[in-house]
Every structure is written in C-alpha cells, then in structure tokens.
Amino acid sequence: MPPVRVVIASPVDELPRLPLSVPATVHQDLTTVHAVPDIRAILPRLRAQLAIVNLELVSFPELAELCKEFPATAFVGLHRLADDAIWMQSLTAGAVDCCVTADLPSSGPTRVDSPYAGI
Known about the structure:
Blueprint: E1 6-9, H1 24-27, E2 30-33, H2 36-46, E3 50-54, H3 60-69, E4 74-79, H4 84-93, E5 97-100
Parallel strand pairs: 1-2, 1-3, 3-4, 4-5
Helix pairs in contact: 3-4
C-alpha cells in the first residue's frame, strides 16, 4: 500500500511531536507548513491525502475554502481548547474531524499498535 502523504499546518512553536516509534520512512511523507498560503502551495504539489490544521492558524472560513479547493484531501482540525462547538464548526466547514491538541502524543515511545502508529 502506498504511503499517505500528510501536511501539518501549525504555528512553529506548536508543532505536534511525532512518537519515537514512527519509522523514518514515514517522516518522508510528512510536511509541515506555518501559513495558509503555504498550505495552498504544498497540497497540490504533494497531492496530500491528509491535512492536519491548527485552528489557531487557519480560520473556519479559510478551512471551508481549503476543503472546497482540495476535495481529495481530508482535513482534520486541531485546537488546544476544542469543544463541541469547535468540532461542529470544523465539520460544517468540511473537515472530517477535530481533535484536542492534547489527544496527540506529546513525546516519548508509543506502542506500535497505537492509533498514532499509522500516521
């Protein structure tokens, strides 16, 4: 199965850390950007299947535009204070899900059967 190409859009100081158990080959399929124009530039070039966007970087109207502009890319919102209202706004904008930043592993080893092992 071909690898999933992922773009992570987040402010530089808030990038999620990858677990140590993620193979080096996976890192080749991850790209990080720090501004909305960069997202627009990189998605078509990489043909990314997944974009994880920090909702403190990307507004809901921008998220809606990105979802319409790149229908082949699944967008997941990420917010440090995500609640039901933010989740609903994300889904309304076209995202497939919205997660609390704390849901991601912060650092350290992660078991291979972890839900994050495939990222």
